[in-house]
Amino acid sequence: MDTAQNTRADVANVRTDGKPAGRERPDPMDFLGIDAMLSEEELRVRDEVRAFVAEGIKPNVAKWWEDAHFPREIAPEMGAMGLLGMHLSGYGCAGKSAVSYGLACMELEAGDSGLRTFVSVQGSLAMSGLHKFGSEEQKEEWLPPMAKGEAIGCFGLTEPSAGSDPAGMKTFARKEGTDWVINGSKRWIGMGSIADVAVLWARTDEEGNPVRGFVVPTSTPGFHAKDITGKFSMRSSIQCDLTFEEMRLPESAMLPGVKGLKGPFACLNEARYGIIWGAMGAARDCYEVALGYAKEREQFDRPVASFQLVQKKLADMMIEIDKGTLLALHLGRMKDAGTLRPEQISVGKLNNVREAIEIAREARTILGGNGVTLEYPIMRHMNNLESVRTYEGTDEVHTLIIGNAITGIPAFR
């Protein structure tokens, strides 16, 4: 290249302010420029939820977590923002895109996994089950108040002896005249003790004993909920044991739109999708806190951010967060296009939760002993993520789902 060509190339790479174009230091919180891939509407949703978390959740959540308290009063606020069932259409729901819903989950979990879990239980599980499979009467009765946060829902699938294997459920519904009578139990049911309605799954005495869904007002005689206490994780959320003793329901309580485990699995995939984004929110919060702390904390007369090993930790965190966020965005675009498969959701859930836990653990080391206190959010995120890793499918289950998709050979049994 001659001198004139060199000069033209130099001029082309200079901005109007005289600085080299495209050579600004990348934003440590958006290193790969992912924000540029989002629409104005997606950014608006993201920023509104981020502001809500900054003002209403982060200043209070350490106390909620320490006291094992779920702030029930936050539900109407979330409803007013359109966060409850926000990816559903009609019946008072916001009808937002999958990407917008994912971004909301990311921001909520940057506050706390327990608060994102509430939105997931309400919208992706209970409301989604009603929306996908309910009768028009069931939808009209429950979805509008649930979207407003005036009514709380729960989703009864997991049992004490049937977690990863829901086909082994023992909760049973028998037909008596035109009624259904249900006996059994469920465990680890989010929001069960404060719920107004449960979307409950039970094996029935229909031919072949298929699993069917039921819409159960929690005031129904025979419905009992008890909080699970002594948790070291998800303390700002509620998980319960449910028991059903000769609980009698009218025929109209059954969800008419589905028969078999494909019903609850369809709802689980909605919740798993939200987790893909949410886990990256928790990871990002840990990274942001660790980065700020490393730049301010001095040891040996210099900030710890100046040490090579600390910079390696921060670089590794940033890379995995941006990779995980790009994965979530790609899967979200596929979901909006109607091409996303359950096995691909498993890739996102397995990878992003696993990486988020490692990021939280590394971030804690940068804070040293201070990292184990509630003054900082990292240990709280770390403990919460251990539950996120287990619910909606363990690492092992998602690994086998992916393995089956790769090989065509199921390895569950």
From TrEMBL:
Pfam family, one: Acyl-CoA_dh_N
Known EC number: 1.3.8.6
Catalysed reactions, semicolon-separated: glutaryl-CoA + oxidized [electron-transfer flavoprotein] + 2 H(+) = (2E)-butenoyl-CoA + reduced [electron-transfer flavoprotein] + CO2
Any one Gene Ontology molecular-function term assigned to this protein's record: fatty-acyl-CoA binding
Protein origin, superkingdom: Bacteria
Acyl-CoA oxidase/dehydrogenase middle domain ranges (all copies): 154-246
EC category: oxidoreductase
Cofactor(s), names only, from the UniProt record: FAD
GO biological process: fatty acid beta-oxidation using acyl-CoA dehydrogenase; fatty-acyl-CoA biosynthetic process
InterPro entries (alphabetical): Acyl-CoA_DH_CS, Acyl-CoA_Oxase/DH_mid-dom, Acyl-CoA_Oxase/DH_mid-dom_sf, AcylCo_DH-like_C, AcylCo_DH/oxidase_C, AcylCoA_DH/ox_N, AcylCoA_DH/ox_N_sf, AcylCoA_DH/oxidase_NM_dom_sf
Name of the protein in its database record: glutaryl-CoA dehydrogenase (ETF)
Provenance organism: Rubrobacter marinus
